[in-house]
Known about the structure:
Elements: E1 4-7, E2 10-13, E3 18-24, E4 33-39, E5 46-52, E6 57-59, E7 67-72, E8 77-82, E9 91-101, E10 108-113, E11 117-122
Parallel strand pairs: 2-11
Antiparallel strand pairs: 1-3, 3-8, 4-5, 4-9, 5-6, 7-8, 9-10, 9-11
Amino acid sequence: QVELVESGGGLVQAGGSLRLSCSATRSIFSANAMGWYRQAPGQQRELVAEIQRGAGTNYADSVKGRFTVSRNRAENVMYLQMNSLKPEDTAVYYCNGRWGMGPVEAPYELDSWGQGTQVTVSS
């Protein structure tokens, strides 16, 4: 099992910035992918940003140009820099990691989630 811990959430005014951090008990650079998801009240959890093992990134259309996902090898931390925040960005943000596991003849993927951190953007 891999433990993921998010931090950095809080209350910010519209137009402001926050940086979320996700620390892991396993190397995030060995993960097939690390991602940030969010879930607003009454909504399904959705992908916000993802960074793959080879450093390729994917973003939800709603955050492109405003959010940036990155990793720090020395600290083994994934970040989500969120700029120009909007009230609709209000949600619980979750860190996710997926690691390839098992022998070659029977591989599987270990999928781990953090507990989440609340981001609230006031108008």
